Amino acid sequence: MKLHKGISSPSLCFLSAFVFILMAGCGTQAPPQRTPGSLVVCIDADGVRARTIVPAVTMEIAAYDVQGTGPEAATFGGTGLGGDSRQWDDLVPGQWIVTVNARNPDGIVIATATETAVVVGGESTELDMTVVPLTGPGTLSVLVSWPGSLIDAPVVSGSLAPEGGSPVVLELTMASESASWCSPDLEAGYYRLSLQIRDGSTLVWGRVEAVRILAGQAASAVYPLADADMNGAPAAGIALHVSADLGNPSAITLTGLQPLLPLQSVMTVTAHAPATPESWQWYLNGEPITGGTLDTITAGGGLPAGRYWLDVTARKGSVLSSGHGFFTISSQRPAMTPAAGEIVINEIMMDPAGVADTSGEWFELCNITSRPLDLQGLAIRTASQFVRLAATGGVIVQPGAFLVLCRNGDPAVNGQVAAGYTYGSGISLPNSGGSLTVAQFGTNGMDGAVIDTVQWTASTSGKSLSLKSQFRNAIDNDVAANWYWSGKPYSSTDMGTPGSANE
Q1: What are the structural domains, with CATH classification, of the chain?
Q2: CB 405 within 8 A of CB 421
Q3: pTM of the model
């Protein structure tokens, strides 16, 4: 069940284990700095599946535990969450660290994920998280045995190869009717185990199997061999093989389904069945889709904002199977890459007084268009340095909103600034004069097409260089007279308006 501010909607059917986090705001204009934000955590449980030789631990996800830690030691969380959604409101704006642990039916943590999100009041941000198995060493033991009467001169050999790596020869311990090997420190992952037995120089038995190692768990490969397992002439007799065809439906799964689809966007969804069906038919909210008779369908497009069920039926002979998924079309249009002049540099703090420049430098961008803009992949550059903006789910700036980009994202370190994006130490803002440019990445980060650029000749300690609001465009912000040194405190030592309109 999906909960959005107390309104329930039908269960979601996703196709892989992930966590989708939506930080929801309340408008297009940037609100006061302390306006609370919200987190919607959408969880799906398709399982982390094991294969072949595996430890005796169930790799099926039964529940999730979610824990978020944010500014001022604020927290949120929940335990025992299933494949549904929860929403946490009134969160303190700033950087939040979100951890998700997946537990199996026995309560054992089998997968985990940790990501950082920034909650900004009045804005929406998406964060995708994928839980993966725990890292670390596990144990594998191998034992192969045989009746002594079957082999006169046993010679046992073996190797173990990590997936994509080179095999390592196993130093087996030999006994009169068995051979064994054990390693307690294999790194978690998949391996190929190869074993062979010779009677002198004659190969009498061999196996190659996939092995999965899980952190902190023990796996055993045991082969108690008998006469029927050995390479030799079979005894005379009748071999009876019985199969069953009970006409059971197949499990139909969907890939490519997006649970939240921006307005006017499309998605391609593919249906999968264990055996190839003879025919397909797709439905939207119970109505057949014209031309939807293949295993793939394109959905979205001209559909209005709302909630939709996407169903598909598959026929093979007299057996009819079905699969379904649920998606929501947002009222917001998809974010677009900005063109020249659509993102404006609005404020620059190149010389903070309360903290060192290396911790407290920041600058602010403003989206002056009427549509969301995605800054992911753009270059931010000075005269000699650049950084590339990259974040899961994009760096989205809503219409009329402000994005604060900080050298350090921790308000306790950077002088009490809530960062919308942390760019790190790749660029520094010169105090004695310099330039700042937002541009396409180009070929090397320094040659892409310019979206907006500004220059300055000096700095004032503890005051941001701010653009007068009536000149908030990419042409007027080139004029030095249209800028001023801010006089509005945002901390006890520094002045500026990070995240809101300039005074």
Answers
A1: 1-134 (2.60.40.10), 137-229 (2.60.40.10), 251-334 (2.60.40.10), 343-485 (2.60.40.1260)
A2: yes
A3: 0.42
